[in-house]
Amino acid sequence: MIETLLKDLKHAVRMFRKSPGFTFAAVAALALGIGANTAIFSVVDAVLLKPLPFPAPARMVLFGVKAPRGRSVTASPAEFEFWRRQTAVVQDVAAFKSGFINYTGGAFPEQLRSAQVSAAFFRLFGARTVLGRTFTEQEDLPNAGRFVVISKPLWQQRFRGDPHIVGTSISLGGDPYTVIGVLDDFSLSDLGGTPDVLVPWQFDPNTTDQGHYFLVGGRLKPGVTLDQANAELQHATAEYRAVFPRGVAPTNSFFAEKIGEVLVANARKSLYVLLGAVGFVLLIACANVANLLLAQAAARTREIAIRTALGGSRGRIIRQLLTESILLSLVGGALGLVLGAIGIRALLSVNTAGLPRVGQHGAMVGIDWRVLGFTLAVSIGTGILFGLLPALTSARADLAAMFKEGSARSGSGFRQNKARSVLIVTEVALAIVLLVGSALLIRTTIALSHVDPGFDVHNVLTMRMSFTGQRFATSASVEQAVREGVQRVMTVPGVEVASATCCVPLEGGYGLPFTIAGRPATNGPYNGGGGWMTVSPGYFDVFKIPVKQGRAFTDRDDGQATPVVIINEAMAKQYWPKGGAIGAHITIGRGVMKQLANAPERQIIGVVGDSRDGGLNNDPQPQMFVPQAQVPDALNALNETLGPMAWVVRTRTAPIPLSKAIEEQLRQATGLPVSNMESMEQVVQTSTSRQRFNMWLMTVFGASALVLAAIGIYGLMAYSVEQRAPEIGIRLALGADGARVKNMIVVQGMRLALVGVVVGVAASFGLARLISSFLFGVAPWDPLVFVSVPVLLILVALVAVWWPARRASRVDPLSALRSA
């Protein structure tokens, strides 16, 4: 058996050497198809298939609240304390949230990535120490003291691997923290970022705080299924509601979801669509190579006839031909593996599209045993797929007819040409489907680029600064630092205006409910809800957001002044459709967070234009703006939890060249470091990265399909002209002119292309419906796309048919008749 296989392989290699053009064309097509599949599968492997690097990841869950309109996995302190008492179904329930804090123990302050965690966090995620220990349950109680566990990289880089670091004190946010441990290598990149320092939450076990601003995870107990846990949590919701009537709405309930599913929820569908699209490219490549093999089989009919006459069985011939096709596919697969790995890493290094679990610049995407196994399986399966039809066709040929013909053309019967025609129709149809998909995504990207976000993104610089520690425990101290920072920044030549805010547009923010004075509650205890932002004077000038009614904030809107608020037009139109928003009073967040339990009524002093803070593809929602100077001190003390504030600066020229000078002025004014320095244009680019990633990949796939289809049509017609040379010669000898012959070949080729176009357009309606959730600003059945794509492919097919037709019109009748 092995000896026979070796003989087949040697014969296949000889055949490939005799036909280098055929070999190159086949390997190139396969490398393109298999390489594209390998590239996309390597991303699928990293995002969807690799197990999480935590103990028993299949049993790890995140808790949340399920509502009729969707699910949320953010939690409140009261919910966390309740969930971790559900010991019948879960264990190691832990709260955690990433943020930033300033290390103030060095010559210059340094911003560190931090995490507030409960004591069970380290057990849940399998985080171990190389020095010291982690928090105890007692150290995670209120007023237990300030403790910190630091990461191994921070220990090695900042503290030079000091073996006596445990027990020493370091300064974070101006406060002393006792180092109790150093973590071993540990990654939390997909859950807010791997922290440099971890501090205990120290929640009050009897807390009533209903503010949702962190995550809670846990591990299902052995033998407990997710369905069992959710049934128990749903039952427990009523118990929680009895204690906190306003904590969970009557229509809502608690739930648990596998942590891996939560991480990839937003990426799963798009990856499956891309995997399906790249599968189409492979099918087109297979059809192309199958056509090449059918043409080669026609040229090898005499060889096959001789082998059959000498006793070669039909099965033996099929096995030989399949060996050749699989060998071709394996060579193409090996080349495709290299091209795919290089291509996807290059793409991810430019744009990771916000995909989870791929690492910075796609560092976590690579070649492992799953990718190798996938590529091998695809290569072998592809070899069988495109090689089976030519092998069966050749082995089924009539031996007597082949010897009678005595020519290499004798194998070009009706059945073989019909098979090749079907393959061409399939190629064209699949190409149409991919081109329609890529055109719809291109139109989406173009539509997003023309969306008016409601603010001017040009010449705006953004950067983050952590106002943490006792020094910034009050809003007055934060506002003072902001004023001094703005004054310093304004001295930099080229700066127009500067401000500070909690939330940069398009990067997410906070949502809070509100009540309207003088109106009965219509949504539970509230009248509605909307986005909530803290801003300092100058914010609307930085982004050139127009003030439609009333006025913007000034320095007089401080903590001693009347509490005020500015709303956007969307909120004004929804809640004051007949006007009258200016002068109305609302109360924000009463009863939602304990820090806002005594929030004052605020007078609406202005209405500003709408901005698409939730994404360029989302309509503006109600939005409330509160002066930073009027934020309650209790809430301001949560800066470490809520995250760093952002400086926003408008410049007269490109902002990045001025960034160093601006950073230095802010450091001198506040004594604090800045991080995450970006222009607003970069922020916009990041917000649309997923759409652009999908567009580029689909465009590459569509272009590949178009080229392969054109090559397939050209190959079929060129082969047809060659096989029909005697017939064409007779036609010309009997008086047919070249134009009529040319038209005959063009009609024959275009008939196949048009059938493929019709089939492809019909199939494209299904694809358009599948990807409708990825589209913006374009209908799934966009007339422009469904007209232009078929026209484009028809034109390409016409060019591919034209050259063989032109050659046919120039056939020499005498030469054709001699070779017949």
Folded structure, characterized:
The structure is a single chain. By secondary structure, the chain is of the alpha+beta class. The protein is 49% helix and 17% strand. The protein has 24 helices and 23 strands. The strands form 3 sheets. Strands 1, 2, 3, 4, 5, 6, 7, 8, 9, 10, 11 and 12 form a 12-stranded mixed β-sheet that branches. Helix 12 (414-449) crosses helix 22 and helix 20 packs antiparallel against helix 22. The protein is elongated. The model is unreliable at 405-415 (pLDDT under 50).
Structural class: alpha+beta
Report the C-alpha radius of gyration, rounded. 34 Å
Kindly state the number of beta strands. Answer: 23
Q: Mean of residue pLDDT?
A: 86
Low-confidence stretches: 405-415
Q: Describe the main β-sheet briefly.
A: 12 strands, mixed
Instruction: Bin the helical content.
Output: 40-55%
- How many DSSP H or I helices? 24
Q: Any idea what the shape is?
A: elongated
Instruction: For the record, give the distance between the C-alpha atoms at the N and C termini, rounded to a whole number.
Output: 42 Å
Beta-sheet strand percentage? 15-25%
SSE order and pairing:
Blueprint: H1 2-18, H2 20-49, E1 60-67, E2 70-72, E3 74-75, H3 77-83, E4 90-103, E5 110-117, H4 121-125, E6 129-132, E7 147-150, H5 152-157, E8 169-172, E9 175-183, E10 197-200, E11 214-220, H6 226-243, E12 253-258, H7 259-299, H8 301-309, H9 314-350, H10 369-395, H11 399-405, H12 414-449, E13 460-465, H13 475-489, E14 495-501, E15 510-516, E16 528-535, H14 539-542, E17 547-550, E18 564-568, H15 569-575, E19 585-588, E20 601-608, E21 623-627, H16 633-636, H17 639-642, E22 645-651, H18 659-670, E23 675-679, H19 680-687, H20 689-723, H21 725-733, H22 738-770, H23 783-809, H24 813-819
Parallel strand pairs: 5-10, 7-9, 16-21, 18-20
Antiparallel strand pairs: 1-2, 1-11, 1-12, 3-11, 4-5, 4-11, 6-9, 7-10, 8-9, 13-22, 13-23, 14-22, 15-16, 15-19, 17-20, 18-21, 19-20
Helix pairs in contact: 1-9, 2-7, 2-9, 2-10, 7-10, 7-12, 7-20, 9-10, 12-20, 12-22, 12-23, 13-18, 20-22, 20-23, 21-24, 22-23
